[in-house]
Amino acid sequence: MAKNINLKKLISQMTLEEKVGQLIQLNGENFTKSASEITGPVQSWGISEEWLNKMGSTLNFPDANTMVKIQKKHLENDPHKIPMLFMMDVIHGYRTIFPIPLGLAASFDPALVYECSRMAAREASAGGVNVTFTPMVDYARDARWGRVMETAGEDPYLACVMGATQVRAFQGDDLSDKEHIAACVKHYAAYGGAEAGRDYNTVEVSERLLREDYLPAYKACIDAGVRMIMPSFNSLNGVPSIANKWLMRKVLKKEWKFDGVVISDYNAIGELKTHGIAPNMREAAKIAFENGCDIEMMSNGYYENLCSLVREGVIDEKDVDKAVYRVLKLKKELGLFDDPYRGASYEKEMALALCPEHRAIARRAACESAVLLKNDGVLPFSKDVKKIALIGPFADSNEIKGFWSCHGKDADCVTVLEGVRAAMPDAEISVANGCSPLWNEKSTEGFAEAVSMAKEADAVVLCLGEPQTYSGEGNSRADIRLPGMQEELAKAIIAANPNCAAVLFNGRPLALTGINNCPAILEMWFPGSEGGNAAADLLFGNAVPCGKLTMSFPKEVGQCPIYYNHPSTGRPKWTAEDVHQRYASNYIGCGNLPLYCFGHGLSYTKFEYEAMELSGTRISAEESLTVSIKVKNAGKYAAKETVQLYIRDIFASTVRPVQQLVAFEKIFLAPGEAKTVTFTVTEEMLRFYDADCKHVSEAGEFVIFTGYADHRYKEARFRLD
Ligand code: NOJ
After folding, report:
1. What whole-number distance in Å separates Cα of residue 598 and Cα of residue 327?
2. Does the beta carbon of 61 lie inside 6 Å of ligand 1?
3. Following CA atoms 233, 238, 242, 246 in sequence, which dihedral angle do they give, to the nearest 10 degrees?
4. Relative to the CA of 233, which ligand 1 atom is closest?
5. What is the pLDDT of residues 354-378, one digit of tens each?
6. Strand partners, 240
7. Dihedral, CA atoms, 325, 327, 331, 334, nearest 10 degrees?
8. Contact at 8 Å (CB) between 277 and 301?
9. Cross-sheet strand order for the sheet of 228-231
C-alpha cells in the first residue's frame, strides 16, 4: 500500500502544524536527549515534546542504532506514520575515507569518483543516512578559501563532470534501492567566489560570469537528477542566496524548472537577520519561504512563524502544501513509507565500515589523486635502500583524513610510517617530527635530531603539510605557505641529504616556493584512511603518480586568486615562458605565472604526444570535428596519463579566457604502447555568454591544443562558420 500512497490525500489530512513540522530540520541530538538535557538554540526556542514529534527530518547522528531509535519513537507518535528523513555530510566517505574532493578531482577519473561515491553511499545507507549534503560544486579560484578542499578546483567543466558523476553514483537509477541515497547539490550559488577567500564573505560576480563559470555545475547536477539543493550562506550581488529572487525564483525554479527539495544551509535563514536583510525571524521566514526554501535547517523561523504567517493570510497554505509535497515525494521515492529504516542496521554498518574491499578502493583513490609536482630523478626510491628517514610532522601522524570526514576517525588512517614499514619490511626506518605543523609554533629544537637522521639515511621522506583544521569550513588562511617552521626544516634536511622527497598533506594549493629546491615533491592532499599505504606505494614505485592539478599553486600568496582560464587582457605581460600571454602587468619579484599550474602532474614514465589530427578545419552547428591525439608511453613504467584538450577562442564580442579545458580522458599505457584518444568538438562547446548574457557561439578562428595549461604539446586551428 505504501508504494501507492496518495501524498496529496495524506497532506489534506494533516494539520497546519504537522505540515510545518515537515519543513523543519533539527540536529540528531535533539531527538535523543531529554528536553532537560538539550542545550543550544533548541532549548532557547523551547520546543515541546509534542512539536519534536512533528519534525520531518534530522541531520547529524552517530550511527544506525540512533537512527532506528529516533525513527521508531517518531513513528509511534506520528498519527500519520510519516517517516523522518536522515541527512548527513557524507563528503569524501562515511567511515572509510577517500581523498578530499579537491584531491579526488585531481585523479581526472570520473569512473573512480563514481566508485568512491558508491562506496560512500553503501556505507552511509547501512548507517541510516537517506540524504547526503553532497556534491559541493562551488567553483573556486582562491586558495586562501578553506573550502577549496571540497571543490573540484578552478575549472567549471571539471566541476560539472565531477558533480554530475557523484549525483549519479549516490542516487543510482532507482532511489528506492536501499544502497543508494539522495544527493543535495550545494552551495547555490557562487559560495566559492568569497571575496579575498574569507569564508562566508560577500560575493560580487556579474551575471555573465555567473552563467559562464559558476552556475553550470549546479545545473549539471540538476540535469543528472539531483533531488535536493542547498542555497549558500553568502550574499550574491547584494542579496543572500536564500533571499535572492533572481537566483531562487528566476534561475532555479523558472529557467531550470527544479522541482526537488530546497533546504537552507545551517541557520542560513536566521542569518538573514545578521546580514541585515530581515529585521526579525518572522520576516526572515517569510522571505526564505517565498523564495522557495522548503526545509529550514537549524533556525527557528518556520517553527515560530510559518503557521501564523499562513493564518494571517501572508503565506498561502497551498504553497505550504506544495513544499510538504516535495518533501514527502522524496520520502516516498526513497521507499521510506515501505521501510522507514531502509534496511539499515548497526551490524550492516559495522560490517561495511573499512572492509577490505572499501579500503582497497580508498588506497587506489589516494594513489590516483596524488600529484607529482616535481621530480629531479630521486623518485621512485630504489627498493634496495637500507635506511629510510621519515621526517616531519606528518611522518607518524594519522591526522590525514581531512575536514568533513563524516564518521571517519584519525585512528583508522594508515600513517606514512605504517605504510613504509609495510612496503619495506627489511629496511631500517627512523622517524622524527622535526617541528610542529602549527602556524604559531616556532621551535627548532627537533631540527638537530632530524638532520642527523637524514645524514645517516639512504633515502629521506619529508612529510609536511597543514593541520586538518586549516582547511574546510570557516578555515581560511592569509598565508598559504607551509605553516610553522616546516620550510626551515625542509631546507636543513635537503642540505643534509639530497636523496630526499617531500610528501605533502594539505587541503588547498600551497605557496611552495620555500621548499621548491626539494628534489621531489609529491602532493598527497588529505588522502584519507589509506593515505600512508598510498604514499608508500608511490614513493617506492609500486604505483606510479598520475594525478594532475585542478587548481594552480601560486609562487606567493599575493598572486591569489590565480587560475589558468584567465580572461585575455589588453596589456599582457609577455615572457618567453608565458605562452598564453595570460596575465596583466607583472608582479615585481615573482612574476605572473603560478609555480605549478592547472593540469600539471608528472609521472615516473615518459609520455610522448606524437600527433594531433583534426578531421577537418571547420565546424558548424550541423557538423562537428574530431580530434585524434596519439600518445605513446616512451618510458619504463606502465602508467596512466590524462589527455587534456583545450580551446582558445581568438576573437569574440566578449573577452574570452586565454584557454579552456573542453575535454579529457585518462588512459593506461604499458611501456612502449601507444594509443589514440579521440574527442568530438561541437559548436555547442564553443558557446559562451555574451555581454547580453545570451548563450551564443560566434564565427571565427579557434586554437585547439593538447598539453596542460602552460604547455602545448600539439596545437592546431579551426574555424567556426
Ligand atoms: C554548513 C555547511 O556550509 C554545509 O556545507 C553543510 O552541509 C551544513 N552545514 C550541514 O552540516
Report:
1. 40
2. no
3. -140
4. 3
5. 999 999 999 999 999 999 999 999 9
6. 235
7. 110
8. no
9. 261-262, 228-231, 182-188, 131-132, 85-88, 57-59, 24-27, 296-297
Query: Is 186's C-beta closer than 6 angstroms to any atom of ligand 1?
Result: yes
What are 371's three cell numbers? 600529484
What local confidence, expressed as pLDDT, does residue 577 receive?
45
Q: Are 242 and 230 in contact (CB under 8 A)?
A: no
Which secondary structure element, helix H or strand E, spans residue 644, and what is its range?
strand 639-649
Which residue in 385, 376, 550, 373 sits closest to 456, CA to CA? 385
Q: How far is CA 459 from CA 386, 387, 492, 498, in A?
A: 8, 7, 15, 9
Average pLDDT over residues 708-713: 85
CB neighbour class for 44 (10 Å; exposed up to 12, middle 13-18, buried from 19): exposed
Q: Which three cell numbers stand for residue 709?
A: 595549461
Look up 199 and say whether it is catalytic.
no
Residue 121 has φ and ψ, to the nearest 5°, of -65, -40
Q: Is the dihedral of CA 149, 151, 153, 154 positive or negative?
A: negative
Give tens-digit pLDDT for 393-447: 999 999 999 999 999 999 999 999 999 999 999 999 999 999 999 999 999 999 9
**Cα gap 517→514, rounded to integer Å:** 8
Q: Is the peptide bond before 572 cis (omega within 30 degrees of 0)?
A: no
- Pairing type for strands 371-375 and 618-619 reads unpaired
Quickly tell me which residue has 567566489 as its cell.
193
Cβ within 8 Å of residue 384, ≥6 positions away: none
Q: What is the CA radius of gyration of the chain?
A: 26
Question: Quick check: CB of 150 below 6 Å from ligand 1?
Answer: no
Cis amide leading into 189 (omega within 30): yes
How far is the centre of ligand 1, averaged over its atoms, from the C-alpha of 59 (Å)? 10
